[in-house]
């Protein structure tokens, strides 16, 4: 009887080991929900986490700070108003203030510009920032792909666009396993 239970237990474990989530060919064969092209963090959905949006903001802001426009400012320290981040995503609960604050922190820490309040009447540039998202999915399998784009645009006080920086963050959610 105990031998029979052991065989049943082994068979059950083998069956469970074969039941894994996968995204199949539609999303490149990835397993768990996660940031596409990165195996550092996993997700349970296609929504940005706090860590995601902070790192996303850092990546785009760093791209801006390394650009030829900002490099040409060395020693000048122009005054910049960082406009509020516009949320054009499908996630109304996205913590926009945290993303905006992280962008401002990085700009101030860089030392290449002076960050001014939006109510300032004296500035050289103004930044307009937007985060957008698109989603694709299959409701019958539960597969989902969400693409977030963070865009930073810099304008002169006359309204001339002098710089634009963006990046994409793609999150995928695999289909559910059925036992």
Question: What keywords describe this structure?
Answer:
single chain, 179 residues, alpha/beta, Rossmann fold, 6-stranded mixed β-sheet, 4 helices, 6 strands, 29% helix, elongated
Word description of this protein:
The protein has helices at 2-18, 50-65, 68-71, 96-110, and strands at 34-35, 79-88, 114-116, 125-138, 143-156, 161-173. The protein is built from four helices and six strands; from the N terminus they run αβααβαββββ. A six-stranded mixed beta sheet has the order 1-6-5-4-2-3, with helices on one face. It is elongated and about 55 Å long. It has 179 residues and is an alpha/beta fold. The chain has a single domain (2-173), classed as ABC-type transport auxiliary lipoprotein component (Rossmann fold, 3-Layer(aba) Sandwich), CATH 3.40.50.10610.
């Amino acid at each position: 009887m105990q031998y029979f239970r052991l065989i049943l237990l082994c068979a059950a474990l083998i069956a469970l080991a074969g039941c894994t989530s996968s995204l199949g060919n539609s999303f490149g064969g990835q397993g768990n929900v996660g940031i596409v092209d990165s195996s550092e963090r996993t997700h349970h959905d296609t929504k940005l986490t706090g860590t995601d949006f902070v790192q996303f903001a850092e990546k785009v802001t760093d791209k801006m700070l390394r650009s030829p426009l900002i490099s040409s400012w060395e020693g000048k320290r122009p005054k910049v108003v960082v406009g509020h981040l516009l949320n054009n995503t499908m996630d109304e609960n996205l913590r926009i203030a945290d993303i905006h604050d992280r962008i401002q922190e990085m700009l101030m820490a860089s030392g290449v510009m002076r960050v001014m309040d939006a109510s300032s009447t004296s500035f050289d540039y103004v930044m307009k920032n937007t985060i957008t998202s698109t989603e694709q999915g299959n409701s019958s399998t539960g597969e989902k792909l969400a693409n977030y784009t963070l865009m930073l645009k810099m304008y002169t006080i006359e309204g001339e666009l002098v710089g634009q920086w963006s990046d994409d963050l793609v999150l995928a959610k695999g289909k559910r396993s059925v036992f």
